[in-house]
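[agent] plan:
  1. take the single chain provided in the ticket
  2. run structure prediction with default settings
  3. attach structure tokens to the ticket
  4. add a short note for the reviewer (M.T.)
[agent] executing step 1
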Amino acid sequence: MMSSQFQVLILNNVSQNGLKRLPAERFTCAKDVVQPDAILLRSADLHKVEIAKSVQAIGRAGSGTNNIPVGEMSKRGVAVFNAPGANANAVKELVLAGMLLAARNIGGAMKFVSALDPGDPEMEKKVEDGKKTFAGYEIAGHTLGVVGLGKIGCLVADAAIKLGMNVVGYDPEITVDAAWSLPSQVRRAGSFGEVLKSCNFVTLHVPLVDATRKMVNAESIAQMKHGAVLLNFSRDGVVDEAAVLAALEAKKLGCYVCDFPSAHVNAHPQVVALPHLGASTREAEENCAIMVADQVRDYLLDGNIANSVNFPNVAMARESDYRIAIANANVPNMVGQISTAMADARLNIHNMLNKSKKDVAYTLVDVDSKVSQEVIDKIARIEGVLAVRYLPREG
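[agent] step 2 finished; step 3 output follows
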């Protein structure tokens, strides 16, 4: 059986070790593909370009998907994948570095030293006199509040405990897997406000959605401990910068550490702003690329779904050479109509799996014989069907 070739458009510099997960005999990966079956990217903004009608899947080698028009893709039946947790260790280490930068005034101390004249015979005395200005405190024994207990939040909590900190965690939508991986020493808070009132450090690890936009604002900062340190390695939009700057000026906040430089915060002496370094390690970039390439490969070849932000997780072992994958609106009687279309074509259903996620449902069907284009077209015409793919096993 001749193998069909999938065309994959590569935007940004996606790790070659990730692209190697797409075997050349089935996948052509290039930056100039005109009619791609899939797109792999990192930070490219797909809101600003026209996405080809041929696209069946989009994979972001990272966790956030704000640069992808997910809602529009859902309406077209296009699965959008990300790589949650693949960069978690990199972000965790940067959060720890951020806490130490704030507690020990490292940024200011480095600026002080760099401004010294190495030829000045009084330099040693100036160092001794000046270091008093940068005296800090140890983080052991202080309390860290972790808001958002996904993979990153859990790793941060565990590392902080090992450094001798007390940890309070809050996540109203914590998953079962995250709950299992959360260290038992973490005290679960009942509300965001409880975290703010009880912690010396507060670190944010939440997605940017309507519910989290400017969740840190003047009202919430007012609940924080005097001199507390706020860390934001999540998304810039979850923090109201004007409120943070006002709190820094009033000495309500001791320091703001973030991964999002801006015209507002950059020059402030109590702000440590880093240039989007959260996932910028060789290891994280490679892990993200490998994870998302594996997911897109499995989706294009077998229709299975893992870590899609708009489709349900679906995994069904192959029990036939003939498989159909259907994405449809999550409305009643879709499975019945799909089954009827196959029965009318005298196709015997060997195995079927249907799952839904919010407004989108997804069905995998293995049948015992070849499926004609006529049947595929008939299913595609069912009202509510978003996309249909025929996935015969090829070799």
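[agent] step 4 note for reviewer: The mean pLDDT is 95.
[agent] ticket updated
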